[in-house]
Amino acid sequence: xxxxxxxxxxxxxxxxxxxxxxxxxxxxxxxxxxxxxxxxxxxxxxxxxxxxxxxxxxxxxx
Amino acid sequence: xxxxxxxxxxxxxxxxxxxxxxxxxxxxxxxxxxxxxxxxxxxxxxxxxxxxxxxxxxxxxx
Amino acid sequence: xxxxxxxxxxxxxxxxxxxxxxxxxxxxxxxxxxxxxxxxxxxxxxxxxxxxxxxxxxxxxx
Amino acid sequence: xxxxxxxxxxxxxxxxxxxxxxxxxxxxxxxxxxxxxxxxxxxxxxxxxxxxxxxxxxxxxx
Amino acid sequence: xxxxxxxxxxxxxxxxxxxxxxxxxxxxxxxxxxxxxxxxxxxxxxxxxxxxxxxxxxxxxx
Amino acid sequence: xxxxxxxxxxxxxxxxxxxxxxxxxxxxxxxxxxxxxxxxxxxxxxxxxxxxxxxxxxxxxx
Lengths: 62, 62, 62, 62, 62, 62
What we know:
The structure is a homohexamer. By secondary structure, chain A is α+β, with helices and mostly antiparallel strands. Chain A contains one helix and four strands. In chain A, the strands form two sheets. A two-stranded parallel ribbon of chain A has the order 1-2. Chain A has a two-stranded antiparallel sheet with strand order 3-4. The radius of gyration of chain A is 14 Å and the shape is elongated. The A-D interface holds A 1-9, 12, 16, 19-20, 22-24, 26-28, 30-32, 51, 53, 58 and D 1-9, 12, 16, 19-20, 22-24, 26-28, 30-32, 51, 53, 58.
């Protein structure tokens, strides 16, 4: 019963999120030999203002 | 000083969230013999669009 | 389908952990009106060396 | 730059974990159109003693 | 490649968040001798309604 | 009352971890104007076998 959490920048379409949930679930099922119903995927959208790399928020990058 | 994080679908009332914080804190206090003030509970509401089970977002389920 | 994660200091007995899982699950069921089978609780034991409050690891406190 | 965290029961082989990291990365790349190097996957093995469903630790299930 | 996640009450200014990302990155670089580009900081704002201490949500405290 | 969680590769000395807790706490205090006692830092050591970048576990990198 794996629980997958994905932190990512906000701004994806609903279709992309659907793809992400479906593809990641398939990947977990394939690698761990668990059933689809046992895989939980939680998406967490993070503002670029709140995501820093190298000491600087990502919304600042040109 | 336990830290409890609860991911759940959005849509609960403030009263339900108050209940959740209070009840979970009591549960932790009772099981671990810590003081109430040492228990931190952080609620995280997740859209059903962002919560997938079985490869499909929960907002799709009828 | 709430997912509860509890970070706590290591050193609890298996019985205490069983209590914790049971009591917290009951608390979530009661507050959110979900079924028991929908509640996932994940315990995460943290060494006092790895838990800092006030800038100091907790294993240092007398 | 998505960060993926997977909580799962302990006991997988190194080969399974390699598969998991590779397959999940591919899934994220495909769904979000990011580059492979931007995907971070962190696996977290959880003892069945520490994973509760329905109020009961998973190590108790026969 | 440390990943730092900070849960905090909502309500900080963008300037405070910039300071936080920069200062925490510097702290990690200094303590762990990693390069700036290897440090990811993810800020997560939590409503005081969703943050409980002592069994009570923080928005209730006077 | 910020809660800071740091995922990092295992293998740091206790002294480095002490530095990390102290420095990160100072950084949060400085940026957010909170008191030292309100800052919780939780370190989480991750095996390089469990940390993947670019689809490959970090223990594989030469």
